[in-house]
Amino acid sequence: MIRLVIIDDHRLFVDGIKAILQNESGIKLVNGYDDSVDIHKMLDDDKPDVVVVDMYMPRKSGIMLSREIKSYIPKVKFILLSMEVDSLFVAELESIGVEAYLSKELDASKLIDAIKRVYAGEVIYQATSLLSTEWPDVLSDDFHLTDREIEVLEYIKRGKTNKEIAELTNRSVWTIMTHRRNIRNKIRLLRGSR
């Protein structure tokens, strides 16, 4: 039996997953939390095999929670869900040891399949790159990136994690994540208009 925990600030999402798993043999949803979860208590009480966590939450991001939990119990498997999966985050997630990075819009059967595959030791990344391999094109004035965003993008290009970029730029990790999101949105907006 796979012991599953979900961390998401939308209770409706947690309840929806619980309903989906009621008739699913082999997976037991032991608990659902928002981003104020006490991770040590959760790990001790629930003993999860797999944690499904939302990438963006108001108090703590999925990346932050993944890093904290992995540092405490590395064997816990992680599935990060986001409305928009993007390769800008892949290096960061791989460095933490996150096993899966998937779209929050995937259907129930695919989420169940992903939980089983991750538990079995697979790594699944569905991120697609919004960035051209021609970096000078991305850094052109057309994208209207700020100086700070260009600086962050240069560090991303070198494979730096959010934490490393935050330390190098004297900013918070949350600020760096915001820059990443803004970069992604600007690139998507311009490319979508072409």
From TrEMBL:
Keywords: DNA-binding, Phosphoprotein. The modification 4-aspartylphosphate is found at residue 54. PROSITE patterns: HTH_LUXR_1, HTH_LUXR_2, RESPONSE_REGULATORY. It comes from the Bacteria. Residues 138-194 form the HTH luxR-type domain. Residues 3-119 form the Response regulatory domain. InterPro entries: CheY-like_superfamily, EvgA-like, NreC/VraR/RcsB-like_REC, Sig_transdc_resp-reg_C-effctor, Sig_transdc_resp-reg_receiver, Tscrpt_reg_LuxR_C. One of its GO terms (molecular function) is DNA binding. SMART domains: HTH_LUXR, REC. GO terms for biological process: phosphorelay signal transduction system; regulation of DNA-templated transcription. This is DNA-binding response regulator, NarL/FixJ family, contains REC and HTH domains.
